[in-house]
Amino acid sequence: MTELDPAQIISIGRIFPGVKRIWLDALRSGEFRQARGAMRLSDGFMDPLGILCELYRRDQGGNWAPRDDGWVFRDARNQYAAGGDLTPAILKWAGSRASRCGLAAPGATWAIANLNDSGAPFAEIAELIEENL
Fold first, then answer.
1. Residue 2 belongs to some domain of the structure
2. Is the Cβ–Cβ distance between 46 and 81 less than 8 Å?
3. Quick check: is 65 in a domain?
4. What is the pTM of this model?
5. Structural domain total, the chain
6. Out of 12, 34, 117, 133, which residue is the most buried by the measure of CB atoms under 10 Å away?
7. Would residue 1 count as lying in a domain?
8. Half-sphere exposure of 90 toward its Cβ, with a 13 Å CA cutoff?
């Protein structure tokens, strides 16, 4: 469980309602198994931003490429997303003007990747996204 005070959370960036809905549905669907420490692991496990990349891939194209510490995503414009940073094309598709999709609280910025890697389950991350992005 994360230690964010819901009363103090602010959004770093907003996303389009349609993209938000399919992302929330994917996080809650059970289709994806949760990875920690990488967007995607070789066994197919993904973190929340990896799922967002996969949703982009299904809609716009792109592909996954193996790397020593997991997989990176290459978007339709041949730009790479890795380590919690999404490409400009993915951010534009999602409707975000931020360089990262995330949440902030006084004294700390919590990127979604950090929440995931800190042990927050998809259900909790989905709830925070739904209420704050």
1. no
2. no
3. yes
4. 0.87
5. 1
6. 133
7. no
8. 29
State the residue for tokens 């790479």: 80
Distance CA 60, CA 48 (A): 18
Could you tell me which residues come within 8 angstroms of residue 25 by beta carbon, excluding any fewer than 6 positions away?
none
Count other Cβ atoms within 10 Å, centred on residue 74.
Answer: 18
What is residue 108's predicted lDDT score, i.e. its pLDDT?
58
**Nearest CA among 72, 21, 79 for reference residue 49:** 72
The residue range of the domain holding 92 is 7-132
**22-63: per-residue pLDDT in tens?**
999 999 999 999 999 889 998 889 999 999 999 999 999 999
Angstrom distance (rounded) from CA 39 to CA 52: 10
Give domain status of residue 68, yes or no. yes
Q: How far apart are CA 33 and CA 41, in angstroms?
A: 10
